[in-house]
Design a protein that fits this description.
85 residues, alpha+beta, two-stranded antiparallel sheet, 1 helix, DUF2442 domain-containing protein, Imm32
């Protein structure tokens, strides 16, 4: 499978890239965090991670996903922060 994405590059205003009919759910399970997603959801999550991985996004840049931004209504919030390690 080959996926082509046009990723935004504006470290001062993170822009989300959503694909198709994405569904992403984040739960806290007994052994850790569980992310459940359909194909479009996985591609969308990968797009957010690839956007944050760009060199213009410095240490400490982050994005937040919640029921108002990309996640299913019964999800817990997901925060991803870029580090220098």
């Amino acid at each position: 499978m080959e996926v082509t994405l046009d990723l935004p590059n504006n470290p001062y205003n993170f822009t989300f890239t959503w694909v198709g009919n994405h569904e992403i759910k984040v739960d806290l399970g007994h052994d850790g965090v569980i992310i459940t997603a359909n194909k479009d959801g996985l591609i969308s999550l990968a797009a957010q991670l690839l956007t944050l991985a760009q060199d213009d996004y410095e240490h400490g840049c982050d994005f937040h996903l919640d029921k108002y931004a990309g996640l299913e209504d019964d999800s817990i919030d997901l925060i991803v922060v870029k580090s220098i390690v």
